Backbone:
């Protein structure tokens, strides 16, 4: 029996590079959000359950986060199939990977790609500006 410790395999860098998001990306993002249910997303953040968790002394950030996460997951599971083609088209335009290749991609790899797109600074900036304009 060997006493050597096995190192966890280093995660390979993705074989794609994400382009910078530009003003032309606002339109497909809005289309996807509309199909997911932008009004429902807003409702999640202003639900009576969240209001109850915030009431009183010190709000429980963990409970609030879990409530929002479960509601968002339910909403996405319900409505994501309605925008499948739009998600593939947008991911393809940002990554340069053909839609057919995205459809054949292992689930974990595809989710990592989507998360990488969502984590882009330009994506977060878009939502920050949109949120400020709704106040």
Residues:
């Amino acid at each position: 029996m060997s006493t050597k410790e096995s190192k966890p395999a280093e995660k390979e860098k993705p074989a794609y590079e994400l382009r910078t998001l530009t003003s032309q990306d606002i339109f497909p993002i809005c289309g996807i959000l509309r199909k997911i249910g932008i009004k429902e997303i807003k409702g999640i953040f202003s639900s009576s359950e969240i209001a109850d968790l915030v009431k009183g002394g010190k709000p429980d950030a963990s409970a609030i986060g879990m409530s929002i996460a479960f509601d968002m997951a339910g909403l996405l599971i319900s409505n994501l199939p309605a925008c499948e083609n739009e998600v593939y088209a947008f991911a393809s335009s940002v990554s340069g990977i053909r839609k057919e290749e995205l459809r054949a991609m292992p689930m974990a790899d595809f989710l990592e790609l989507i998360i990488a797109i969502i984590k882009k600074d330009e994506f977060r900036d878009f939502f920050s500006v949109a949120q400020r304009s709704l106040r």
About this structure: DSSP finds eight helices and no strands in the chain. Residues 91 and 113 are 8 Å apart (CA to CA). The chain has a mean pLDDT of 84. The first helix runs from residue 26 to 36.
